[in-house]
Design goal:
With 148 residues, this protein is an alpha+beta fold. It has three helices and seven strands. The longest helix is centred in the C-terminal third of the chain and has 24 residues.
Length: 148
Amino acid sequence: MKKPMVIKEVITFKSDLKRVWNLVTNPEMTKQYMFGCEVLSDWKIGSPIIWKGKTEDGKEVIYVKGEIIEYEKEKKVTFSTFDPNMGITDILTNYVNLTYEVISQENGCKLIITQGDFQGVDNSEKRFEEAKQGWKMVIPMMKKIIVK
């Protein structure tokens, strides 16, 4: 049996829950840390979700697309994700789930990010490693934004 390929990051913020929830669901906020991409959705279960940004020459591109699977406002959201620019087949088995869970704590809150399982998707090793590296860049920017 192969080992699951799941990324789990737990980030503690000295900030209130509403502010951290806004960080992960507001397009103006995601644009600041997600490589210029706005997250766009109506946040209803079954609805589409996309990350839209611009290329260096100003062309609009959808970098990630998916569907809302679970949603509990200011608590938890889970959605499928797929990069339509990867050159792999756009089929359900190539989508990977991403969950943001925000939990209040005594001196702020924590954000739990869970992404995967990459096991079994096309280019699984490459996608898993790229996602891990991406979070290493994104999380410090998220922390910087919340401190402002």
